[in-house]
Specification:
The chain is mainly alpha-helical. It has one domain (about 1-70). It has 3 helices and no strands. Helix 1 runs antiparallel to helix 2.
């Protein structure tokens, strides 16, 4: 998750270097849905007998929620 977040933010900053808030939103859009809506079911299907699979997917979802919360308070300057 952090790798895809970092990759999204780097590409976005290369394309539009002065729009850091936009880069953060794009990176969150690229990672958040994957961890919460796809990650948990996939981990449960791949590792049905291991409760650690659900725990790791849930922690990844919580990390993305915390990242969203931290960056949602930063507003882009008006142009």
């Amino acid at each position: 998750m952090l790798v895809s977040y970092s990759l999204c933010i780097i590409v976005s900053l290369i394309v539009k270097p002065k729009q850091q808030a936009l880069a953060a939103i794009r990176a969150l859009n690229g990672t958040f849905g994957n961890t919460a809506f796809i990650g948990i079911p996939v981990m449960m299907l791949l590792f049905p007998q291991q409760p650690a699979a659900f725990t790791s997917a849930a922690i990844a979802s919580l990390i993305s929620i915390l990242m969203f919360d931290c960056f949602s308070h930063h507003r882009a300057p008006t142009q």
